[in-house]
């Protein structure tokens, strides 16, 4: 890290604590010694799952969701995702969210990487996990959660990323991972679900 | 759009208005008729630029930045980006931000697409523009803005996306676009900077 870019906390104040968003305002010392304020959301972190459904023909299909996202006033196409519960590991969260939202459980898992959706105003990180060996069970949505589950081919997903039908950042990054895993450029380290325990 | 996923605003209240973050809390009607609350940040929108620097050897290098991002307490590698000023077009903003942050002006521009960094709690969108035909001038950072400009090859960027050195969502999505433009899978419609006027 370039030491001369660092900003140092002088004071911190919670300016909004509500049901959902927790906003802090910190007083920080800039690299030139001046003081300024930084406002940001404190977020517990989240996971996203890229679920690979192997068809009888050997072709892969992806499990995706359509969900109305109120801030952007649109139905958005997304990979399954959700926030970490207190003390929960990212894999446990990924297994829980995949099952709750889509009904699927997976026999094999691989951690791809981590992303920061908005480095300028949120502490949020999202860990990206791939899942395969899917078995369909019963989904259990949270109260007040409405979403449609559907499947698509990787080629359909790439097309939607190009033509603007997919705009969700984490899902676009899922496509980046998938494309490079499919081409063999990036490797995944697959493990049986019980091997992580 | 699936009509049965839609959430309808019943009331809206600004719960935080400060120097930087504007937070709203809306009362909304869910698809099943129940009422709930949605909290979100209202953001003016932003642009990101993927600046292509053609070397004397014909090889392309990318103009990137290193910046300390206080919410994630790390120096983050990013493509140049910035928020829209009131009434500003995304191209004008892209040209302004590229020049202010890196000193470069570009003779040709192409709009790639749009992304939503956090569909669950911000109205923010980021338009992605490619720039080429770069000429170096003098950069003019905002007061209190500290960042390092550097160049890298596309292959270095892809490597950093894979190994976790790049975690910024918009920059990962810039890599998705660049990779598909380089392979010829996705096309850009390049225009001279003055052709947009």
UniProtKB/TrEMBL annotation, chains A, B:
InterPro entries: NUDIX_hydrolase-like_dom_sf, NUDIX_hydrolase_CS, NUDIX_hydrolase_dom. One of its GO terms (molecular function) is hydrolase activity. Keywords: Hydrolase. GO terms for cellular component: cytosol. GO terms for biological process: nucleoside phosphate metabolic process; ribose phosphate metabolic process. Its cofactor is Mg(2+). Residues 42-174 form the Nudix hydrolase domain. It catalyses: GDP-alpha-D-mannose + H2O = alpha-D-mannose 1-phosphate + GMP + 2 H(+). Belongs to the Nudix hydrolase family. NudK subfamily. This is GDP-mannose pyrophosphatase. The lineage of its organism: Bacteria, Pseudomonadati, Pseudomonadota, Betaproteobacteria, Burkholderiales.
């Amino acid at each position: 890290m370039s030491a001369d870019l660092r900003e140092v906390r002088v004071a911190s104040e919670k300016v909004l604590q509500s049901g959902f968003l927790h906003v802090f305002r910190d007083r920080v010392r800039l690299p030139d010694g001046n003081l300024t304020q930084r406002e940001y959301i404190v977020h517990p972190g989240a996971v996203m799952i890229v679920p690979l459904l192997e068809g009888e023909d050997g072709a892969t299909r992806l499990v995706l969701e359509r969900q109305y996202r109120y801030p952007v006033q649109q139905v958005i196409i997304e990979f399954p995702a959700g926030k970490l519960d207190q003390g929960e590991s990212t894999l446990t969260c990924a297994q829980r969210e995949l099952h709750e939202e889509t009904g699927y459980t997976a026999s094999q898992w691989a951690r791809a990487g981590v992303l920061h959706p908005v480095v300028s105003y949120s502490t949020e990180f999202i860990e990206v996990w791939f899942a395969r060996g899917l078995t369909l069970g019963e989904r259990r949505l949270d109260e007040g959660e409405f979403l449609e589950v559907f499947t698509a081919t990787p080629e359909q997903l790439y097309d939607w990323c190009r033509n603007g039908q997919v705009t969700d950042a984490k899902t676009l990054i899922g496509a980046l991972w998938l494309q490079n895993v499919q081409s063999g450029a990036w490797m995944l380290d697959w493990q049986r679900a019980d091997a992580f325990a």
